[in-house]
Amino acid sequence: MKRFGAHHYEVAVTLHSLAAVYQARGEPANAEHAYRTALEVKTATLGTEHHEVAILKNNMASLLQQQRRLQEAGELYNQASATLEAVLGPNHPIARACRRNAEKIETNSETDSETSRTTRMD
User: For a tag site, which of 25, 33, 99, 112 has the least CB within 10 Å?
Assistant: First the structure.
């Protein structure tokens, strides 16, 4: 971080990757912290309507969903989906995958069933 500074885009990219590693290793607190910091930096550098910000929201939502924090996950999935559909188009594979993730949350919330597996985007 000394080379770029804490609020540099490259730091956010690294934090996003680190969050995915923490999530895969079963370290949700560390993953969430890294996702939130990456989201803050990417939003500040790229803006709220950038596809990379939306992908990060999707991935953070998958972590929250694993923790059964379905309301928070659903909000992030819906935000990400709206951005991706606006920027990439509703038929883009990434936009469709994110919309499916949001729909799975809505279905699980309605049925209170076990959380379905969602798609992370790297």
Answer: 112
Q: Distance between CA atoms of 46 and 29, rounded to whole angstroms? A: 25
Start-to-end CA span in the chain (Å): 22
- How far is the CA of 34 from the CAs of 41, 57, 105, in angstroms? 11, 12, 23
Q: What is the pLDDT of residues 79-111, one digit of tens each?
A: 999 999 999 999 999 999 999 999 999 887 655
Rounded-to-integer distance, Cα 52 and Cα 83, Å: 10
Whether this model's pTM surpasses 0.70 = yes
What are the Cα distances from residue 68, in Å, to 31, 92, 94, 119? 15, 28, 23, 16
47, 49, 52, 48: which is closest to 15 by C-alpha? 52
CATH number, span 9-111: 1.25.40.10
Sorted by where each begins, the domain ranges of the chain are 9-111
Residues 6+ apart with CB under 8 A from 85: 92, 95, 99
- Which residues does 80 contact at the CB level (< 8 Å), separation at least 6? 54, 55, 57, 58, 61, 98, 102
